[in-house]
Specification:
alpha/beta
Length: 407
């Protein structure tokens, strides 16, 4: 099993194993939320059964599902931590139901993959070669990601100056729409998290809304999905939102509901990882800083007075220019080596693991492997920490090389 798959599996085991306190006023409805770890455990076992036993590379679909399950467990832990006074049970159950639906999708995909594998075992070699040639022309499955507002500002490096400028721009009078563009893993989300959680920004804006727009399976209309997520963050029950959004005029009704909720509010909205190149979606999200009266577009649901602000991240400068204008978006450069090393160190030190002398000697090589991407630095640190936890007693013969890890 490759290092990254082993790391993902062990990380998932740890998340499932965390003991949870049962609230005194536990109701029957809580069972749906509490059963999610057990369902994740069952799906993890399905993945383990399909993994090769001879050290062969792990199928990309299985690797993808491990990422999904880790994301779901992260969201589940966040769901449990939500303040019961600020987050009604109806909203908590709605979020739990979304996790359940994603687990059903993962289970279905795994069952189909298992059935396909059993069928292929009886296929002749020429048939396998023909199928392989055909599969090479099919796009590889994506690994979907999910971001959240939570972050430890002390653990974010390399974006301090940009975050400070962003925070100052946000608290200025008037409506603001600010965009950040850069390749995956460069730190766009971290920059927005740092600004979003700044104390001055938190005092200035209420409500603050975080919406992740990364590509997700089974989303039919991202326009509706985006507005519905905003309304859920504002406290609307999912079943009410679903009723409002039904039918041909559902999108207009959702936008109107959003506009009424944000009217006369000083709000901040983060739209993280906007990726959709669909023409209808791009038209829906274009020119967000304008104050037109077009009820078919998102900008109508975002009142410009007395004050509001948007932070948007994307990998596409074309999308960003359409949303905020050429002068209002900034391209994030690659992180410097010093910042990548700090991120790597923090990831290693998380469980009290100390950097060995052997690892310190590889500093230049690790910085080079990170290629200026904070995400790679963090993953390398997590893998080193995981391997250190496996063998807490250091030995002179222990292999601490990072080059060659399959990521």
């Amino acid at each position: 099993m490759a290092v990254i798959e082993k790391f993902l599996k062990e990380k998932l085991d740890d998340a499932i194993a965390i003991k949870r306190e049962t609230p005194e006023n536990r109701c029957q409805k809580m069972e749906m939320i509490e059963n999610i770890p057990e369902e994740c455990r069952e799906l993890k076992e399905m993945i383990e059964k399909q993994m090769p036993k001879d050290g062969a590379p792990v199928d990309s679909i299985l690797k993808e599902k491990l990422y999904y399950l880790n994301n779901i467990m992260t969201e589940w832990h966040m769901l449990l931590k939500k303040d019961r006074l600020c987050t009604p049970m109806a909203i908590r159950l709605g979020l739990a139901n979304d996790l359940k639906e994603r687990l059903k999708k993962i289970k279905k995909d795994l069952q189909e993959a298992c059935a396909a594998k059993e069928k292929n075992e009886s296929v002749t070699k020429p048939q396998l070669e023909a199928a392989k040639e055909k599969s090479e022309s099919v796009p590889k499955p994506h690994v979907y990601r999910w971001s959240c507002r939570s972050v430890d500002p002390k653990k974010i490096y390399g974006v301090e100056d940009k975050a400070m400028i962003t925070e100052r721009l946000l608290v200025k009078e008037g409506f603001k729409a600010i965009g950040f563009v850069g390749m995956a893993g460069v730190g766009k989300t971290a920059l927005c998290q740092k600004a979003f959680n700044n104390q001055q920004v938190k005092k200035h804006f209420n409500p603050r809304i975080w919406v992740c727009l990364s590509e997700q399976p089974d989303v039919v209309d991202y326009r509706k999905e985006m507005v519905m997520m905003m309304l859920m963050c504002l406290g609307f029950e999912k079943k009410i939102i679903d009723k409002v959004g039904v039918g041909e005029g559902g999108l207009k009704m959702l936008i109107l509901a959003l506009q009424r909720q944000l009217k006369r509010q000083r709000y901040l909205i983060v739209l993280d990882d906007v990726w959709n190149m669909n023409e209808d979606f791009n038209k829906f999200c274009s020119s967000l800083a304008q104050d037109d009266k077009n009820e078919d577009r998102l900008e109508y649901g975002l009142p410009k007075r007395p004050e509001g602000a948007l932070l948007i991240t994307s990998r596409s400068p074309i999308i960003m220019e359409s949303m905020v204008g050429e002068k209002n978006f900034h391209i994030l450069p690659l992180a410097d080596k010093k910042s990548c090393w700090k991120i790597f160190e923090d990831a290693v030190h998380k469980d009290g693991v100390a950097l060995t002398d052997d690892i310190k000697k590889l500093k230049n090589e690790i910085e080079k492997d990170c290629a200026g991407l904070p995400l790679i630095a963090k993953m390398l640190g997590q893998i080193v920490r995981s391997k250190a936890n496996e063998s807490p007693q250091p030995s002179s013969g222990r292999n601490t090389q990072t080059r060659g890890l399959e990521i």
